[in-house]
Write a structure and sequence with these properties.
The complex is a heterodimer.
Chain A (H helix, E strand, L loop, with lengths): L2 H30 L5 E7 L6 E9 L2 H19 L19 H5 L1 H7 L10 E3 L10 E5 L2 E10 L1 H10 L11
Chain B lengths: L1 H19 L7 E5 L1 H6 L3 E6 L2 E6 L1 H7 L1 H16 L7 H17 L13 H5 L7 E12 L2 E12 L5 E8 L8 H30 L1 E9 L10 E2 L3 E2 H12 L6 E5 L4 E8 L11 H13 L7 E6 L3 E6 L3
Parallel strand pairs in B: 1-4, 7-13
Antiparallel strand pairs in B: 2-3, 4-5, 5-6, 7-11, 8-9, 10-11, 12-13
Helix pairs in contact in B: 4-7
The chains are: A alpha+beta, B alpha+beta.
C-alpha cells in the first residue's frame, strides 16, 4: 500500500470514528435524561408570556446535564409546573394537567423533544451559559446534579399545544 | 347550475352546525373591590334609615387613580390574548350615562311619545357582567421596603360563588416603584387565575351551567305552592319533579320553599337544548314556564331573567 493511500484510509477511519462518537455522546445525553429526571423551580418574574426557571438536571457527565436543561425546562412547564417561593414567584400549574396525555400524544412529543426538535423554539438561556459554583453538585461518585437558568416562552408553548388540541384554550366550547 | 346550489346548501348546513356547537360565552369585567375603594377614599356616604353606609364610587376611582387603570388595562390585555376580551368598566359606566341621556331626550316622530321605562328597567341600568373579576391590592411598607399584596377573585354574578382566584404577596423591594410592583403582581398571578377559570369552564362543560331559579307568586293570585294538582301533589313538588327530570344528572338544591316562594340553587342546566341551540337560564326556565301554563296546571306566569344565570317565574299572571 502506498503511503498516500494509507494516510487517506487512516484519515477516513478517524473522521467516521469522530462522527460516530459525537452521535454516541448525543444519544448518551438523551439516555441520561430519558426518564425526565430533573427538578424545576421558579427563578423570578420574566417578561409577559414567559417563565424564568432554574432546572436541575442529573447526569453522569456534567456536559450532558447542561445540554438537557433546555429540554427539561420545556418538559417541566408542560407536565410538571413548579412551586412558588421567593423573588415574587407564584406557583405555576403545568400546561397539561392530565399525565396520561404524554402517552396519548407520544408520537407528537417524541418528535417535539427529539434532538434539535421543536422545543428549542420555546426556550432560551437566561444566562450566558455559565454555571454558578453552587449550581454544580456531585451527588454520588458517578453522578452530577447541575442547574441552568432558562426562559421558557410559556404563552407561545401553550398556543402550540392548543393548536394540536393537547391543551384546551380558554375559549374552547364558546 | 345544480352544483353551486349544492355547495351553498352544504355551506349553510356547516354554518348552522358550527353555530349550534358554541355555548353562550360569559362576559367578564374587572371591578375594583369595595375594600380597595374605601381604603383609598373612593366612596360615597349616605344615611340609610339611621345607619351610615359607604358605597364604592367607581367613576371617581377611574378618573383619579392611574394605578387602577394600569392594572385593569394589563389584565384586559392578558385576557384578550387568551381570546377572552373583557368589558371595560370605565367605558360601560360612560355608555350607561350617555344612553340614559339619549333615552331621556328621545321622542317618537309621529306621536311625541317617550321611551317606555319602568322603575325596574331604571334599576337594571348598571354596569354588569356574568363574571366579575374583583381586584384588591394593598401596598405593604416596612421602612423603605415595599411589597404588594394582590388578590384577584372571579365571582359568578348569579350564584355568588367564587369560581376563580389568584392571591399572594410579591417580593419586597427597596427601589421599585408601586406601578412596577403592580405590573409584576399581575404578571405572576394571571396564569393561576386563568387556570382556575379554565377549571370552572371545564366543570361547566361536563356538568352543565349552574344557575339559580326562583319561583314567586303575585299577591292577587288565589293559588300557592302548596295547592294540590291532579294526582294530589303540591305545586312545589311538581316543580321539583320537573327540575329533577330536566337538570344535568338531576342536580339541583331546594334552598327555600314556602307557600309563596321557592328558591332552587346549584341547578345544573345543559348548555344546549334538544335542537342543539345554546341555552341560558331564561331559555331553560321558559320550558318550565310553558309546562306550568299548559294543562293540567294552567297557571299563567311571568318569566323574569337576570343575565345568563338567574331566572324567576312569578305565578298568577303576566
Amino acid at each position: 500500500m502506498k503511503p498516500s493511500y494509507l494516510f487517506t484510509t487512516i484519515f477516513l477511519v478517524l473522521v467516521v470514528n469522530f462522527g460516530a462518537q459525537a452521535q454516541w455522546k448525543k444519544e448518551k445525553a438523551l439516555d441520561d435524561t430519558k426518564i425526565w429526571r430533573y427538578d424545576i423551580e421558579c427563578e423570578g418574574i420574566a417578561k409577559q408570556g414567559a417563565k424564568l426557571v432554574k432546572v436541575w438536571s442529573y447526569s453522569k457527565n456534567p456536559k450532558h446535564a447542561i445540554a438537557s436543561a433546555m429540554r427539561n425546562a420545556v418538559h417541566g412547564v408542560i407536565f410538571k409546573g413548579f412551586a412558588g417561593g421567593g423573588q415574587g414567584c407564584t406557583s405555576f400549574q403545568p400546561l397539561v394537567k392530565d399525565p396520561s396525555v404524554e402517552e396519548e400524544y407520544k408520537e407528537f412529543f417524541n418528535e417535539f423533544f427529539a434532538e434539535g426538535g421543536e422545543y428549542l423554539k420555546y426556550v432560551s438561556s437566561a444566562t450566558d451559559g455559565s454555571i454558578a459554583p453552587g449550581d454544580r453538585l456531585k451527588v454520588s461518585k458517578r453522578e452530577y446534579k447541575i442547574a441552568a437558568v432558562v426562559t421558557v416562552m410559556s404563552d407561545q408553548l401553550r398556543k402550540r399545544l392548543e393548536k394540536e388540541n393537547i391543551v384546551k384554550s380558554l375559549t374552547s366550547g364558546f | 347550475m345544480k352544483q353551486p346550489k349544492l355547495i351553498l346548501c352544504l355551506l349553510v348546513i356547516l354554518n348552522i352546525t358550527l353555530a349550534f356547537g358554541q355555548a353562550k360565552k360569559p362576559t367578564l369585567m374587572v371591578v375594583p373591590s369595595d375594600a380597595w375603594c374605601i381604603q383609598n377614599g373612593y366612596f360615597l356616604v349616605f344615611e340609610n334609615q339611621g345607619s351610615t353606609e359607604k358605597i364604592a364610587d367607581y367613576k371617581r376611582a377611574f378618573q383619579e387613580n392611574p394605578e387602577v387603570l394600569q392594572v385593569i388595562s394589563q389584565i384586559n390585555g392578558m385576557m384578550a390574548d387568551r381570546g377572552f376580551p373583557l368589558k371595560n368598566m370605565e367605558s360601560v359606566i360612560k355608555t350607561i350615562s350617555s344612553n340614559s341621556a339619549e333615552d331621556n331626550l328621545r321622542q317618537s316622530k309621529e306621536s311625541g311619545s317617550d321611551i317606555a321605562e319602568s322603575p325596574i328597567d331604571e334599576l337594571k341600568k348598571a354596569a354588569k357582567a356574568d363574571i366579575i373579576i374583583q381586584l384588591t391590592w394593598t401596598v405593604n411598607k416596612t421602612g423603605p421596603k415595599k411589597s404588594i399584596n394582590f388578590n384577584l377573585q372571579g365571582l359568578d354574578s348569579y350564584t355568588d360563588k367564587q369560581i376563580a382566584t389568584a392571591t399572594g404577596t410579591g417580593a419586597p423591594s427597596f427601589s421599585a416603584e408601586t406601578p412596577v410592583l403592580l405590573s409584576e403582581a399581575v404578571l405572576s398571578h394571571m396564569d393561576n387565575f386563568t387556570a382556575s377559570l379554565q377549571s370552572h369552564f371545564d366543570d361547566m362543560f361536563e356538568n352543565g351551567r349552574e344557575i339559580i331559579v326562583r319561583i314567586q307568586k303575585w299577591d292577587d293570585w288565589d293559588g300557592d305552592l302548596e295547592t294540590e294538582y291532579g294526582g294530589g301533589d303540591e305545586l312545589g313538588f311538581v316543580i321539583e319533579d320537573w327540575l329533577q327530570k330536566n337538570t344535568v344528572k338531576g342536580r339541583f338544591n331546594t334552598t327555600d320553599m314556602t307557600e309563596n316562594m321557592a328558591l332552587f340553587e346549584q341547578v345544573r342546566i345543559p348548555l344546549y337544548n334538544e335542537g342543539g341551540n345554546a341555552i341560558d337560564a331564561r331559555r331553560y326556565v321558559r320550558d318550565l314556564s310553558k309546562f306550568l301554563s299548559d294543562a293540567p296546571y294552567s297557571i299563567p306566569n311571568k318569566l323574569v331573567m337576570k343575565g345568563l344565570g338567574r331566572a324567576t317565574i312569578i305565578l298568577g299572571s303576566k
